[in-house]
């Protein structure tokens, strides 16, 4: 049965107690509020965390002020005492039944043992009879504001000592207060997620850096950082919008519970951001790691239930190994998050960090950043204020040929980007990147502006050809797009019927109400609309019926083999006939052979575009092409 979301309890402490030989010494009594105390200890998220300089400074100070070889900040767990900080003692933890500090949990003040060999409670304790041969002990409880004792700060000597002086007692109490103040501050200054009370991203980064520092130079230590995205960002936003923030919080709480149940004992779970979690695994074999990732994936992919509604989400799990991938905490988190994103995109159960994939993502980010500069530089050059990196963007024009008369009837404006270091960047690479960001608006405006400037220049020279401009789905999704186009036409002195817009089917699959409204406004301005890449979308026939377009452009994948592929011939012939019956012109793009040209002419396709006629040309070259007679079928050769 799927889990039902309920408030998230503290993460459970390990249940399997280690086995040790019984002692003849008396056992420490159990505090009255032991379960509350253990729950508080879990909430503070101190156990099994890396060393932290602030705590280490206090223990060093304790050893120095009280002149002892050993000083500890000890946290008493269910079956052990674990040292958050230690000076002079190699062990990281000892059994609780051997713990001096466990006796101090119920002490109202300090617990001082002058000579453990003379105290019946400790005389047979292995820590007294063996290393570190404790003789003297003094511990001050670490007590929360509601009276729950987490452990102690204690000092230890292997020689018996008299009772502490009043000044030394005061010093130990002050050190205890300092430790608790830091514990509370550590929790209060942003180390816990407010919804699940798990450690957050800042704690994760600090813990990774501490682990890396502690293992510096130790080749045997292998750290694996795992990032778990329990929902794509849009899914989480939709969950919040439809069911409310309370349901989204309950979803995250249930995610945390499910993931925590899949982790190895004493593995900390971190809550990084909405629907994103992480954990650190140390020295795990690949088969053990794989089993853990599979358990997490199975747990998260099982539908969640909220008020009887099953909720299914996408899940991405990614991981990165250190030292296989060098770098600090920020770089490791970025790499693991990149792997989780790859898992989401490819719908794989989990993905290891892939350096090649990461390079592609890094290139995409750099291109976006450089594209911002390119747009600004090109705009500055157009206005005469360029300062150095202008001119990267330019427009090439590819002719459109009337297949009945072989005359040029217009051109398509194609955006080109020449990067100063990387050279030409394909629009198939950078335009989709821009469409994912706010860059699409300034990029489209630059293209339209540049084309309008060229059209006005050509009209003054007597070249009266309409030019097609590609626009994005995000352009049509903006309520003011048509108004901005109208303003640009006025500014450049260009008539609306001198341009038309090519719109992909995917653009029309967004918010139909907004898209239709913008298309209607463009048509009222006098701008014709073509459906680009026709035949590649999901609802081609409905678009032919519903949208105010005047032409359809058959995608080049159906044209390249049109002379030999019967299936392509059937699809293209049917499209031409249907479009003509509905009153649309038909444009075939990707015409590269004489055979394709002849087939399209025979089947009454209206316009053609492709390398057979001309490659995309710079404005001056386009003018030369026209002056040379444009397309001459008698001299055409296959490309």
TrEMBL record:
Q: Name one GO molecular function term.
A: cyclic-guanylate-specific phosphodiesterase activity
Cytoplasm among keywords: no
Domain EAL positions: 376-630
Q: Does the keyword Ribosomal protein apply?
A: no
Which keywords belong to this entry? Plasmid
* InterPro entries linked to this entry: Cyclic-di-GMP_PDE-like (IPR050706), EAL_dom (IPR001633), EAL_sf (IPR035919), GAF (IPR003018), GAF-like_dom_sf (IPR029016), GGDEF_dom (IPR000160), Nucleotide_cyclase (IPR029787), Rev_trsase/Diguanyl_cyclase (IPR043128)
Q: Which domain of life is it from?
A: Bacteria
According to the UniProt record, where is the region Disordered?
1-27
Q: What is this protein called?
A: Diguanylate cyclase/phosphodiesterase (GGDEF and EAL domains)
Q: Which organism is it from?
A: Azospirillum lipoferum (strain 4B)
